[in-house]
Amino acid sequence: MPRSGDTLAQPVPRRHTDRHDRHPPRPGRSRHHPGGPDRAPLVDRAHLLADIRAALAATGGVLLHGPAGIGKTALLDTLAQDAGPAGETVLRSSPTAAEADLPHLALIDLLGEALPGLAEDLPDHLRQALECALLHRAPQPGTPTDPLAVRVAVLEALRRLAQRGPVLVLLDDTQWLDEASRQVIAFAARRLTDRRVRIAVTERTEHAGAAPERGALCPPAAREIAVGPLGERGTGALLRERLGLRLSGLTLTRVHAVSGGNPYYALELGRSLATGGGESALAADPARPLDVPHRLRALVSARLGELPDTARQSLTVLAAARTGTGLPATITEPLAAARRHGIVQQTPAGTPQFSHPLVAEVVLADAAPDTLRAAHRLLAELTADPVEQVRHQALAADAPDPRLASRLHRAADTALTRGAPGTAAELLRLAADHTPDPDTASRRLLAAARNAAAAGLPDLARACGERLAAAPAADVRVHARLLLARLLGPDHPGAEPLLTAAAEDTGGHPALTAAVHQERAVRALHRGDRAEGLAELATAEKHADHADDPDLLVELLAQRAPLTLLTDPALGLAQLERGCRLAAGRPPTAAAVFCREGLAVAALRSGDLPRAVAEVEALRAEVEAAGRTEDLANVLYIAASVYERAGRCTEAYAAGRAAHDLRERIEPSPGPARVLGGAAELNGGTADRAAHLLDSAIRAAESDHDREWLAYAHGLRGRAELLRGNHPAAADHLTRCRLLLRLMEFTDPALFLVDADLAEALALSGRPEQAAATLADARDRAARLGRDVLTLGLHRAEAHLTAATDPRRAADTLRALLPDTHPYPLELARAHLALGTLERRARRRAAARTALQEAHTRYTAAGCRPWQQHTAAALAALDALEADPTPMQQQILTLIRSGATNREIAARLHLSVKAVEANLTRLYRQYGVRGRAELARHRD
Predict the structure, then answer these.
(1) 383, 543, 576, 841: most buried by Cβ count inside 10 Å?
(2) Rounded to whole angstroms, how far apart are CA atoms 154 and 157?
(3) How far is CA 882 from CA 476, 645, 918, in A?
């Protein structure tokens, strides 16, 4: 268990929109446009791309519409990038506003370079008309070009190109398409019924829900698809991939909210944060307006400048108010001018809101300090909620106020009782700013940092902690440095100076000294140095004995117990139960949550799934109610593991995806989040998506030198290869997983179920000695720790090993060992799947069908989609089996077993090599094997 919207009314200038701020050369000037190696990655659009490709395949056309900067051009870039290697001819036009009056310019983009190669295929009168339209030939004086001839010529040119291979026509920004080209393309699109010509069109629509107008440029059955905003996670990924800017917590939430999920806006805001130091300033003061760069500010500043003062003052109040705040007529009536300028719009409920969040940010940034304070004073009078009221009062104050600080502190306590530690953190930060006494101010700031960390707001936590380097009290400085070290992550080199400074500041105080040694233990154990980790824990416990600090004891038990569970499960369970008793009745801490997670994990490993489920579900409800985001990410991870082993894969998938999304937001490294995403895919998604996520996780964990998550990533990657039927690759990944677990002395075979899968992969890869050694070692460890729950998986793997020489005996033995029920339902389903495979190899098809149907029923009941589909494919392959081998195939089989090559077999039996290969394919299918080596080992 690891420590464990509407857009702006005014169009954006062309050169800065729709391409995620990329400006490649005009690709419409040539036929083929494969993207270069530096093509910016397209993030968070996989499902949208799949819909676009499906629409193109089904109807031959798609119209993508959405506001400026939303990423329509980037989608076309990706289609072009993928079409080139597939052998498609790509024709593209990307007009601009300045070119909208130039006739036939889009046709020049699309067909200008292709025309010379098509000239001989077109009749003379059509060729001449098209050459004149594309300016390849000067028209005869006094002889106008026939518009119908041009239209027919373009249609025929596309048809002739399609005869040579598939054609993809990409029409970007068609709101600026010249009228002459529009008419010609619409004429051709209505008549293109050959799916070998596909057309993808983009059109800018000024706000969400606006209907596109360029559907006539697509074939009649084409689909219209709105390109919507990125989610918060996608916005964060875009900033990481494009700018190397890793935002989290409130900062990412603010950037996403202000950009409205528009990629172009997000990138502009991200650049401003990265270059002007705005990221740290925003983390330190979340109420601070974002520094909106000039290119975005120019979109609205002119319109704001045209408003009367009363309207601008009302806009400031609207921008400072929480969503849903009721505003009086004195505020809403002056907003009529703002509505006329497209700055404000009415919601369905009749309340005003900004046409785009970016406008609100510019209003706040431009407001004079006195105007902004007056807005907050008004909002404090309008709200009845005491927490929100005191927040506005603090933002309206222009000097420190001790009485206000006390009210803010009490409001923070109220927020905590509501399960909102993030709100409490912000209120405590404001309280610290209004507290004149330095010691009291620093303690409030430390509490703010701790609550921010618990709420999954590392940027705010870090900003508060960094302000405490010169706190008057040593204990505050020590705890602030320890918190900052944890926020950096377990392998960050910047943590060591913080720990050294913290150790020097303890002054020999036992509780502080114990806390420093405890943090050093966490880091040693994380990097796999168990000896040092245990030594640091022992030192911490020695100092803790002299400190009356129950929370510290709970933390130490939370660290010690998982290690004890690996060698003495009973003692480890007792330590966890003691930690839970000490924490009972006290405010929740990460350590108390960890102890309760440990109880669920201990029950999970012993096979007591009802208790594991009950523990984790109760804990999840409490942590969610407390608003402890960081703890919730860990609880969701444990819940996903518990649900999986309980055979509740739909719930495991949902919990795993939720854990993935939370960790993507709050963790500095993407590795753990992607491991959880891959695990979720293996429960309710696909092996291919799992492999993609896990490959990314492996790279991240290797870069971070994170052995534990690297081990889990390799183990899950091996399971994905088992699903794919690639046993050698599965064996390699699973071997790596097992080795890493051993290096960390994670010897409990129930911690991560790797042994049975590894032995099976080794056996099916033709490595029987390694498979046998793996099984012997796993059986010994399982017996020593009383892990009887693992026996069935080991029986299944051993049956595969036996089947290399005697599949019938292997099947008979496994069938006799199958129980009616099992604590881990998926293990029983895997055993039935293995039995079906063995019976098929033994050529007992009726028995194989019965076993495979039983496995399919169990996987279906569990909701385990990948293995359900895998078993369905095995059943389909069984039903497709041919009759017994023909005499010719029997001879081929005999020669394969003697080591003959395909060419030697062909010469011996007077066949062509292709005939031998075709017969081998049938034999592979009949015997359920993947290649010559398995076929040679197969015995009837």
Answers:
(1) 576
(2) 5
(3) 77, 37, 13
Q: What DSSP string runs through 239-295?
A: HHHHH-----HHHHHHHHHHHTT-HHHHHHHHHHHHHHTHHHHHHH-TTSPP---HH
* β-strands 344-346, 352-354 pairing: antiparallel
Give 92's strand partners.
170
Whole-number Å distance between alpha carbons of 832 and 367? 69
d(CA 773, CA 795): 14
**252-269 tens-digit pLDDT:** 888 888 888 888 888 888
Q: Phi and psi of 63, rounded to 5°?
A: -115, 115
Q: Both tokens of residue 258?
A: 């202000």
The strand pairing partners of 90, in sequence order, are 168
d(CA 422, CA 426): 7
CA dist., res. 738 & res. 751, Å (int)? 11
Question: In a 3-state reduction of DSSP, which class is residue 338?
Answer: helix
Condensed to tens digits (0 to 9), the pLDDT of residues 538-587 reads 898 888 878 877 778 888 888 888 778 777 888 888 888 888 888 888 77
The type of residue at 191 is R
- Between CA 427 and CA 424 the distance in angstroms is 5
**Whether the predicted pLDDT of 691 surpasses 70:** yes
Lookup: tokens for 820: 């009616």
3-state secondary structure of 223: strand
Encoded amino acid at 163, one letter: Q
C-alpha–C-alpha distance, residues 615 and 625, integer Å: 16
Q: Which two tokens stand for residue 80?
A: 């072009």
Q: What is the CA radius of gyration of the chain?
A: 33
pTM beyond 0.90: no
CB 331 within 8 A of CB 314: yes
Give φ, ψ of 167 to 5 degrees. -125, 135
